[in-house]
Structures are given as C-alpha cells and as structure tokens.
Amino acid sequence: MSLMDKVKELLAPDEGETVLYDYECQECETTFTSSEEQESVTCDNCGSTDLEEVGRMYAGGGGGAPG
Ligand SMILES: [Zn+2]
Question: Which residues are CB-neighbours of 11 under 8 A, at least 6 positions away?
C-alpha cells in the first residue's frame, strides 16, 4: 500500500465502523451505552434527555483507537 492510499483510508469514513457512546444521565445518574448520537438518545432508565457523554468506543472497522 502506498502512502497516499494510507492517507485516503485515514480520511475516508469507514462505513463498517460503529461508534458506541457511553452516556451518564444527569437526572438519575444511570450510565448506559448507545450507538445513537446525543441529540437522539434518551435515558434508558427515566427517559430524560439531560445526558452527558462520558466516553465512546469504536467497534468494527479497524485501526484501533487513536491516542
Ligand atoms: Zn435517567
């Protein structure tokens, strides 16, 4: 693989990659994991939308987590 191919691969989003977000509910302090982005997710426990993202994980694709 050439360097340019490698750069292109890094820049292009991998459609096979799933992002899992860890959220903490600010209402009831439940933490849960969702593949939805924050604006479209509600608390698993109480239904609140007052959530804070506390972490994220990349599943599928490849390359591992940066940093
Ligand atoms: Zn809650």
Answer: none
